């Protein structure tokens, strides 16, 4: 992967608060990259430094081999799409898309051609003469995208681009954004606090915590092999069972000894937690070797899945299980049911922090 953007040792403080703390990142050409994390983790500050709206206290920002750390925002070959879209209400769709090129002095047939190409890319050509007030939320988002893409930036920055949309439209636009990124070949860098959004769209994700990168990985690796309890808890839903590492596995008081795929990475005697995804919890009608007796204390039907809260003797917190509605067992599940559960060692992790 050839590097397009390099963030080298970048830090930024606001008074006593260190918003970004010595971050190193490399983003490839034609890569969809996500900055993910909770509010206050530094992701928007980092995005603003890449865009040129904030200056880092230390470190460098390099784009296509050129140090742009001190280059003004309007001189960088980068476009930023804001969450609010910021469309001009008095202009048509075509006028909004053309605005940036017109400010650069483009006129005539070349301008019309570039605008038509951009509108066609986001499938809005039939709406070119409408005003923003006549558009839906998804259509406004597409106009903002076309306006950003028409200038053919080397890098497109997107700050919470789907935050103003409802859930169903947001899911549709996640796939649409990925399609646009692949078709244009432009590198996309998106900032989001929505882990599902990042998992759906990004080729790689940097999960930030308190101004630092907690883990940088592909979506599947981030979900299946989180490096810490923070990552495991932030990405998706996770069950945690506290115990002590032994030669045989993680010994959990009252439940027994359990294996995990990364047990060998932890020293014997270490206090740690076993991490199991809800969809990895298997439900059984009867007792088998390694299974644990459980009581269904709560149940939620989500359409495609059922979420169960399983009470286990000696544990204050319920174990969460996710069962596909297509599973034959799902029709018999109800609150108050006694059953058994287990999980495979190859899909369990030991996390010591």
UniProtKB/TrEMBL annotation:
Top-level lineage group: Bacteria
Reactions this protein catalyses: ATP + H2O + polyamine-[polyamine-binding protein]Side 1 = ADP + phosphate + polyamineSide 2 + [polyamine-binding protein]Side 1
Enzyme class: translocase
GO CC field: ATP-binding cassette (ABC) transporter complex
E.C. number: 7.6.2.11
Lipid metabolism found in the keyword field: no
Residue ranges of domain ABC transporter in the record: 5-235
A Pfam family assignment: ABC_tran
SUPFAM superfamilies: MOP-like (SSF50331), P-loop containing nucleoside triphosphate hydrolases (SSF52540)
Function: Part of the ABC transporter complex PotABCD involved in spermidine/putrescine import. Responsible for energy coupling to the transport system.
Family: Belongs to the ABC transporter superfamily. Spermidine/putrescine importer (TC 3.A.1.11.1) family.
Subunit structure: The complex is composed of two ATP-binding proteins (PotA), two transmembrane proteins (PotB and PotC) and a solute-binding protein (PotD).
Name this protein carries in UniProt: Spermidine/putrescine import ATP-binding protein PotA
Gene that encodes it: potA
